[in-house]
């Protein structure tokens, strides 16, 4: 299965430019179809409907047929959910609350359907976190538990630990709080990685760098990532 993980970036909200369009085009090209089926899952967001409206416009513009997995589908129509997932060529997990997204995926048993899907699976921010072993999240900050970014569990579809929004100095300083994690892939805004057969390839829009951060003997070692194998970072 092929995955694309995006650190963050402007998708064109409130009249802004869709800065991630180069990534969108790369993802669509990898389907090798003229009019691929794009399925949006916005379960991490409290504004899923308006989020989908933006993504629908972005992906229709580059030739996709678009659809949306609504909460009402999950509650009332499991057959529709299964059909949408199995018909999709691209499944896009949107950003928002990483823990909320993981809990919803498990509650509605989407994890098994995603595993069985033949689609390219894309995650941005929280959507990227949930595809990995663990992802750095603002869950405790947003819920007034602490002032720190913390690692939350993911689905472990990809055997890495992730820090999206990797240009944020506060996030970077909080990575080291969890002593059980000694290797983290850092994805700044406007960066993306492709994961295919345990091989990682990085993409950047404005020369931002994907970084592998390792902790050895209380020393931080940062290595720029272009291409590498997952086995080398676990």
- Number of H- or I-type helical stretches: 9
Element order: H for helix, E for strand? EHEHEHHEHHEHEHEEHEEEEEE
CATH homologous superfamily title: Class I glutamine amidotransferase (GATase) domain
What is the C-level CATH assignment?
A: Alpha Beta
Strand order of the largest sheet: 3-2-4-5-1-10-11-14
**Mass-distribution shape:** globular
- CATH arch. level architecture: 3-Layer(aba) Sandwich
Q: Any idea what the radius of gyration is?
A: 17 Å
Helical proportion, percent range: 25-40%
Class of secondary structure makeup = alpha/beta
Overall number of structural domains: 1
State the separation between the terminal residues, measured CA to CA. 19 Å
DSSP strand content: 25-35%
Major beta sheet, specifics?
A: 8 strands, mixed
In total, the number of strands is 14
Question: Could you list the spans in which at least 5 consecutive residues all have pLDDT below 50?
Answer: none
Say what the CATH topology is.
Answer: Rossmann fold
Q: Mean pLDDT, rounded to whole units?
A: 93
């Amino acid at each position: 299965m092929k995955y694309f993980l995006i650190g963050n970036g402007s998708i064109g909200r409130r009249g802004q430019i869709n800065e991630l369009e180069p990534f969108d085009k790369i993802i669509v090209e990898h389907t090798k179809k003229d009019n691929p089926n794009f399925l949006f899952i916005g379960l991490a967001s409290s504004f899923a409907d308006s989020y989908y409206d933006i993504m629908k416009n972005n992906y229709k513009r580059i030739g996709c047929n678009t659809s949306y997995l609504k909460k009402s589908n999950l509650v009332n129509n499991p057959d529709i959910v299964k059909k949408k997932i199995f018909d999709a060529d691209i499944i896009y997990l949107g950003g928002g609350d990483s823990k909320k997204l993981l809990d919803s995926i498990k509650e509605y048993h989407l994890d098994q359907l995603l595993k069985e899907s033949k689609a390219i699976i894309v995650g941005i921010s929280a959507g990227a976190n949930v595809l990995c072993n663990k992802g750095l999240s603002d869950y405790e900050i947003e819920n007034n538990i602490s002032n720190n970014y913390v690692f939350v569990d993911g689905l472990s579809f990809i055997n890495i630990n992730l820090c999206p929004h990797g240009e944020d100095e506060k996030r970077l300083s909080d990575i080291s709080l969890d002593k059980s994690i000694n290797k983290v892939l850092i994805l700044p805004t406007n960066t993306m990685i492709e994961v295919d057969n345990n091989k990682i390839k990085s993409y950047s829009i404005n020369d931002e760098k994907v970084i592998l951060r390792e902790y050895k003997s209380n020393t931080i070692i940062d290595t720029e990532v272009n291409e590498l194998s997952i086995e080398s970072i676990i």
